[in-house]
Amino acid sequence: MTGRGYTIFDTAIGRCGIAWGDGGVAGVQLPELREIETRKRLFQLHPDAREMRPPEEVDVAIEGIAATLRGGNGDLGGVALDMSGISAFDQRVYQIVRAIPRGETRTYDEVASALRTSGAVYSIAQALGRNPFMIIVPCHRVLEAGHYADRISPNGGSVSKRRLLSIEGAQPTTSKTLFDVLLPVARPRPQA
């Protein structure tokens, strides 16, 4: 990739934005109510980026995001993220959240358990509120215990968690814990 850039692209839920740098995708902006607001928000977050044609790696991310937002199974697992300026803790949270399968949700408590930091629920919520990689890091799949939050981070634009989960066909319940997904052999299974 060469330099910092951004572009606006069409999806089933509206015009999204994506910014990138030499290290990969630097941010994704879901649609605001009007495209000009989406552009303004992207510019505020990435003032040094200029509008240009995306490199091939970013085109792959755009295709994956668009597929996901039309209800398909967009493959975003291999998308490189530019983590410069992101704390080590937030990076760990994003890694855990990227492992949540499409159509499933987890609670903040489950993410804390997977990180082995049970007292960090507030810090995890803060990290997800700062998530610059919407859809690629699917923070909409993380819910409060017993609640169904309706808004996501500022990069989520006017789109709600409820809408994103509906597109994915997710139910706001957990079928497996992150601990089961990430460390399947670490816990003994109950005998039937």
In short:
The protein is an alpha/beta fold. It is 34% helix and 14% strand.
If you had to describe this structure to a student in words, what would you say it looks like?
The chain is of the alpha/beta class and 192 residues long. The chain folds into 2 domains: 5-69, Double Stranded RNA Binding Domain (2-Layer Sandwich); 88-182, Orthogonal Bundle (Arc Repressor Mutant, subunit A). Helix content is 34%, strand content 14%. The chain contains 7 helices and 6 strands. The chain has helices at 35-45, 56-69, 88-98, 108-115, 121-129, 161-168, 178-182, and strands at 5-11, 14-21, 24-29, 50-51, 106-107, 142-143. The strands form 2 sheets. It has a 4-stranded mixed β-sheet. Strands 5-6 form a two-stranded parallel sheet. A hairpin with a 2-residue loop joins β1 and β2 (14-21). The termini are far apart. 38% of the residues are buried. Residues 173-192 have low confidence and may be disordered.
Write the layout of secondary structure elements.
Blueprint: E1 5-11, E2 14-21, E3 24-29, H1 35-45, E4 50-51, H2 56-69, H3 88-98, E5 106-107, H4 108-115, H5 121-129, E6 142-143, H6 161-168, H7 178-182
Parallel strand pairs: 1-4, 5-6
Antiparallel strand pairs: 1-2, 2-3
Helix pairs in contact: 4-5
Write a concise keyword list for the protein shown above.
single chain; 192 residues; alpha/beta; Double Stranded RNA Binding Domain; Arc Repressor Mutant, subunit A; 2 domains; four-stranded mixed sheet; two-stranded parallel sheet; 7 helices; 6 strands; 14% strand; globular; disordered C terminus
